[in-house]
UniProtKB/TrEMBL annotation:
Residue numbers binding substrate: 7-14, 20-21, 59, 86-89, 97, 113-114, 182-183
Family (UniProt): Belongs to the phosphoglycerate mutase family. BPG-dependent PGAM subfamily.
Any one of the GO BP annotations: gluconeogenesis
Residues at the site labelled Transition state stabilizer: H181
Active site, per annotation: H8, E86
Entry keyword annotation includes Isomerase: yes
Record protein name field: 2,3-bisphosphoglycerate-dependent phosphoglycerate mutase
Gene that produces this protein: gpmA
Pathway entry: Carbohydrate degradation; glycolysis; pyruvate from D-glyceraldehyde 3-phosphate: step 3/5
GO MF annotations in UniProt: phosphoglycerate mutase activity
Source species: Brochothrix campestris FSL F6-1037
Length: 228
């Protein structure tokens, strides 16, 4: 069976080079075009799905909608979960990445962005943008609400969703698409390909580009390629 991972198309905040995390921004015009193109590529490759998964953030949800529309699979059952959200970027959310590098140093910012286990600076629970203020997240155990996540913490909350929701669909022989985010997908890729904590630092995912995994019956990866 096939597992297709797709990072959302370019968002308005990708375009402005802002740390985004759980902030809910729309796709840019270019991002919509990328999502539609991804759908066309999936159609041309004759890939059909049995189930789709996405996050509760509109840049991923809308990317999935465009992909399904362009590949004529609008009818597909879709399941959304906060566990597929982008990593929470803590107090960095809304800041410009380049300006932050000038202020705190490029090395520090690289560490915040790509190290496996360094946490970004904390977002306080009293912040009006903290997820505890958002209806979508009220069902989450308050102790799990992040104040800033590194890739390790992101993997720890993505993995139960893989095990409980995505893997069971694949194990039934279903083809699955997951439309999510740069870092929630990097976490999944680290797990799927057994990539080390050091090597995952260099793994980057382009926006709006379907990544196809062909999986054996036990879900080991037998082949991997981008549709471009
Ligand atoms: O949340 C963000 O800012 C981006 O979607 C991913 O950012 P990164 O490339 O800094 O991890």
């Amino acid at each position: 069976m096939k597992l297709v991972l797709i990072r959302h198309g370019q968002s308005e905040w990708n375009k402005r080079n802002l740390f985004t995390g759980w902030h809910d921004v729309e796709l840019s015009e270019q991002g919509v075009a990328e999502a539609k193109q991804a759908g066309t590529l999936i159609k041309e490759a004759n890939i059909t799905f049995d189930h789709a998964f996405t996050s509760v953030l509109k840049r991923a949800v809308h990317t999935l909608n465009d992909v399904l529309a362009e590949s004529n699979q609008d009818w597909l059952p879709v399941t959304k979960s906060w566990r597929l959200n982008e990593r929470h970027y803590g107090a960095l959310q809304g800041l410009n990445k380049e300006e932050t590098a000038v202020k705190y140093g490029a090395d520090k910012v690289l560490q915040w962005r790509r190290s496996y286990d360094v946490l970004p600076p904390l977002m306080l629970q009293t912040d009006p943008n903290h997820p505890s203020q958002d209806r979508r997240y009220q069902a989450i155990d308050q102790r799990m609400l992040p104040s800033g996540e590194n890739l390790k913490v992101t993997l720890e909350r993505v993995l139960p969703y893989w095990t409980d929701a995505i893997a069971p669909a694949l194990l039934q022989g279903e083809n699955v698409i997951v439309a999510a985010h740069g870092n929630s997908l990097r976490a999944l890729i680290k797990y799927l390909e057994n990539i080390s904590d050091d090597d995952i630092m260099a793994v980057e995912l382009p926006t709006g580009t379907p990544l196809v995994y062909e999986l054996a019956a036990d879900l080991t990866v037998t082949n991997k390629y981008y549709l471009t």
